[in-house]
Amino acid sequence: DAMVIQNPRYQVTQFGKPVTLSCSQTLNHNVMYWYQQKSSQAPKLLFHYYDKDFNNEADTPDNFQSRRPNTSFCFLDIRSPGLGDAAMYLCATSRGSAGQGNPYEQYFGPGTRLTVT
Amino acid sequence: AQSVTQLGSHVSVSEGALVLLRCNYSSSVPPYLFWYVQYPNQGLQLLLKYTTGATLVKGINGFEAEFKKSETSFHLTKPSAHMSDAAEYFCAVSLSAPMRFGAGTRLTVKP
Fold first, then answer.
1. Is A45 strand, coil or helix?
2. Are B43 and A111 inside 8 Å of each other by CB?
3. What does the alpha-carbon distance between residue A56 and residue A47 come to, in Å, rounded to a whole number?
4. How far apart, in whole angstroms, are the C-alpha atoms of residue B111 and residue B104?
5. Residue B44 touches partner A, C-beta closer than 8 Å
6. Which of A24, A90, A96, B78 fits a disulfide with B19 by CB distance 3.0 to 4.6 angstroms?
7. CB contact under 8 A, B49 and A102
8. Distance between CA atoms of A112 and B84, rounded to whole angstroms?
9. Predicted local distance difference test score (pLDDT) of residue A103
10. What is the distance in angstroms between the Cα of B101 and the nearest Cα belonging to chain A?
11. Contact yes or no for B106/B12 (Cβ under 8 A)
């Protein structure tokens, strides 16, 4: 089945130690998104890629970076994690182009729960 | 700008009772509207969506929602709640990527 995959599901890192979260998709979608979700809150968009075009939300901290080396993969890098960065990180995709179905419907991965010690 | 407002951060119903989760949108033109469900420690799963056409939309797990342009609403309903429906529900709107989410409603189902 076509899907969005996130690895690992649970990640523990130390305060200040760089960490990378991974997302891959088999849907061949143009757009990939990274969200941060803290407990009992809605997902907060950090950034998204439309193909190779990177779009950063205005309030995304500089501590967060992203890479999309190809259509299938997207990475979230946290350069110096703080205790406040502990959260669930969700990756999503959408087709983003005309054609059958809704181009803006987002498909989510299972998330990576990040703990900072 | 597009946005959604979910009325009620917590809703509690008894098993077998009607579920009603409220969502109002703000958009200058009819948008695409979505309801997602999230179970603990999982990603978001699409329940249903409105794009164009029929205003009553049926989704998975017995949920449905009705798009009412005059009320700018897209409320989610289910005739009879089941214990397995306990989760967080998010309404979302999109005219163009990226999607905007409501604050979420936590549904509790009492035995």
1. strand
2. yes
3. 4
4. 23
5. yes
6. B78
7. yes
8. 23
9. 80
10. 7
11. no
Burial readout A28-47 (b: 16 or more C-beta within 10 A, e: otherwise): ebbbbbbbbbeeeebbbbbb
Which one of A21, A60, A104, A107 would you mutate to disrupt binding with B, by most B Cβ within 10 Å of its Cβ?
A104
Q: Between the CA of residue A88 and those of A3, A33, B10, B47, what are the distances in Å?
A: 19, 14, 21, 21
Per-residue pLDDT in tens (0 to 9) along chain A, 117 residues: 669 999 899 999 999 999 999 999 999 999 999 999 998 899 999 999 999 999 999 899 999 999 999 999 999 999 999 999 999 999 999 988 766 667 888 999 999 999 999
The 3-state secondary structure of B71-100, one letter per residue: CCEEEEEECCCCHHHCEEEEEEEECCCCCE
Residues in a beta bridge with A23: A6, A74
C-beta atoms of A104 and B45 within 8 A: no
For an interface test with A, the pick among B33, B42, B44, B52 (most A C-beta atoms closer than 10 Å) comes out as B44
Neighbours of A95 (CB within 10 A): 20
Q: Strands A19-25 and A31-37, how do they pair?
A: unpaired
Q: How far apart are the first and last CA of chain A?
A: 36
**Contact of B24 with B72, CB cutoff 8 Å:** yes
